[in-house]
Write a structure and sequence with these properties.
There is one protein chain. This protein is α+β, with helices and mostly antiparallel strands. About 45% of the residues lie in helices and about 20% in strands. The strands form 2 sheets. A 5-stranded antiparallel beta sheet has the order 1-2-3-5-4, with helices on both faces. The longest helix is centred in the middle third of the chain and has 20 residues.
Length: about 250
Amino acid sequence: RHAMACRMTDVSSRLAAALAERYTIEHELGHGGMATVHLAHDVRYGRAVAIKVLRPELSHAIAGERFLREVAIAAQLQSPHILPMLESGEADGLLYYVMPYVEGDTLRNVLATRGALPPSEAMRYLRDVVDALAHAHRHGVVHRDIKPDNVMIAERHAVVVDFGIAKAMSEASSQHTLTSIGVSLGTPAYMAPEQAAADPSIDHRADIYSVGVLAYEMLAGRTPFVGTTQSILAAHITSPPEPLDVLR
């Protein structure tokens, strides 16, 4: 734990120094398996932004130019339910991208606090998520990692974040490279069967499946399949979920 804290402090310091002319890093908002998110002040435009920086070992392991090229494709999406990407780049060997700072909470935290949601509220969020995905799919962009962590709830609406990141990671690295540093693409509980089976030709239907899992969780208070990573992946391929009306 101490080593993790030291690494995060080092990343914050490196990022702050490298982007000093453009952004003032204020503090860390959170971190996950692939990246750390920092609240920052945009010096040029006087606005609050969130800067997500990939783990240093991840930045070193993937092809930076290819990653940024894939991210740039997703950055062209324009929908009220997609959190836009303001810019991306490399600073002191760290790959990062910048988004507007949203005052709200992740759907993950909402579900952790409240459990199953009223159907009307769940449907409102789902409409927003599906609108975002429909726009992205029309432009040939597949999210590949739809889950409550990547949905922000702000002012009674849902906004999807991190479009193109899973695709960029996949295109810029090998699965073996990511596995060797403890990173996996996608989240087992929300993976479509073709993702669980490591099918290389993933398309928009994987997102549709993940939205179904998301809907199930919002209404039931849990995902369709629970257990170890391997048992969950196997269940996506071989098992029907328990009917919602049994749980609610």
